[in-house]
Amino acid sequence: MQIGQDMVAVVTGGASGLGEAVARGLAAAGARVALFDRDAEKGERVAAEIAGRFHAVDVSDAESVRAGFAAVVDGAGAPRILVNCAGIGPAAKTVSKGAAHDPALFAQVIGVNLIGSFNCASQGAALMAALAPLGADGERGVIVNTASVAAYEGQVGQVAYAASKGGIVGMTLPMARDLAGHGIRVCTIAPGLFLTPLLKGLPQEVQDSLGRQVPFPPRLGDPVEFAALARHIVENPMLNGEVIRLDGAIRMAPR
Ligand code: NAD
After folding, report:
1. Which ligand 1 atom sits nearest the alpha carbon of residue 161?
2. Is 170 among the domain residues?
3. Does any domain span residue 80?
4. Quick check: 25 pLDDT over 90?
5. What are 9's strand-pairing partners?
6. DSSP category for residue 76
7. What pLDDT is attached to residue 238?
8. Domain count of the chain?
9. What is the CATH number for 222?
10. What is the separation, in whole angstroms, between the first and last Cα of the chain?
11. Which one, of 151, 148, 84, 162, lies nearest residue 116 by Cα?
C-alpha cells in the first residue's frame, strides 16, 4: 500500500523508542499519525513535533482502545495503518528465592503485550474493513505487530515477556488469514537489541558489550532501522502473515 498524503496511521507506544521512530517515519512519508500511549507528556511532545495527535490509551484495556479509535475516527478518519509497539518487559524468574512468579505480574505482561496488541489489531481491523479498497489488489489496511527475539530465545527472567511475545508470533498468521478477505495484511517484526530509552539507561560499557554480541553489524540497532522495516511492510503487498526477525543474526544466550 502506498502511504498516501493524509492516510491515517495509529502507532501504539508512539511516545518512545521504536514506536516514536515509526511515528516519525510515517509522518515523514505523509501520513497523519495518531499516537496511542499511556505516557501523555512524551506522547504530546512527539505528536506536536510531527503534526500528529496524541491519545491517552491503555492498550490492555479494550474500552480505552475503543475510545482512542473513536477519537481518531472523529478527528482524522479511520486508520489504514496500525503499528503496535506498546510493550513492557519486567524481569522475574519462574521461581525466585523459593517463591513462585507473581501471577499478577505475569498477567499484566500478557495483558499489555499480547492482549494489548490483539485489542488494537482487532478493533483497528474492524475500522479498516469498512474502508474502500485501494489499488489493483483492493487493499484496505496493514497491521504491523512488534514481538521480540525473546519469543524464540527468551532469557532467564523473561518467562512472562517471552510468553507474551510468543503469543504475538502465534497470532500473526491466523490473523492474516482471518483478515485476508477484507484486504488487510498482518505482519510482525521480532527485533533483537535496539537502542531505545530502556537500553540508553544502561552504562556505555554495558551497551557496548551488548552490541558486540550481535554478529553483524556488531552494534545495537537504531530505531530508525526498525521504522524502515515497518514502512516497507506497509508498502510491500506480498508481505503478509510473516514474522520477520530484525536482529543482525543475534541468537540470545540463556543469560
Ligand atoms: P519503550 O519503553 O521506549 O516504549 C514503549 C512505549 O509503550 C512507552 O512509550 C510506554 O509508555 C508505552 N506503553 C507501555 N505500556 C502501555 C500501555 N499499557 N498502553 C499504552 N502504551 C503503553 O520501549 P521500546 O524499546 O521502544 O519497545 C517497543 C516495543 O518493542 C515493545 O513491545 C518491546 O517489547 C519491543 N522490543 C524492543 C526491543 C529493544 O531492544 N528495544 C527488542 C525487542 C522487542
Report:
1. 34
2. yes
3. yes
4. yes
5. 33, 81
6. T
7. 98
8. 1
9. 3.40.50.720
10. 40
11. 84
User: Which residue's C-alpha cell is 516514536?
Assistant: 20
Pocket of ligand 1 from Cβ distances under 6 Å:
12-13, 15-19, 36-39, 57-60, 85-89, 112-113, 116, 146, 148, 191, 193-194, 196-198
Indicate whether 61 belongs to any domain: yes
**Banded pLDDT at 192 (limits 50, 70, 90):** very high
Catalytic pick among 161, 186, 220, 248: 161
The phi, psi pair for 52, rounded to 5°, reads: -110, -165
Contacts of 148 (CB under 8 A, 6+ apart): 161, 162, 165, 190, 191
C-alpha cell at 240: 503478509
Residue 136 domain boundaries: 8-245
pLDDT digits (tens, 9 = 90+) for 203-244: 899 899 999 999 999 999 999 999 999 999 999 999 999 999
CA pair distance 59, 62, nearest whole angstrom: 7
Distance CA 224, CA 218 (A): 17
Considering the domain boundaries, does residue 211 fall inside one? yes
Pairing of strands 95-96, 8-12: unpaired
C-alpha cell, 87: 510493550
- What is the distance in A from the centroid of ligand 1 to the CA of 85? 6
Q: Is 206 exposed, middle or buried (0-12, 13-18, 19+ CB in 10 A)?
A: exposed
User: What is the pTM (predicted TM-score) of this model?
Assistant: 0.98
- Across the chain, mean pLDDT equals 97
Atom 24 of ligand 1, nearest CA residue: 17
Residue 83 pairs with which residues in a beta bridge?
11, 144
pLDDT at 201: 84
Atom 39 of ligand 1: nearest residue by CA position: 194
The HSE-up count of residue 54 (CA atoms within 13 Å, CB side) is: 21
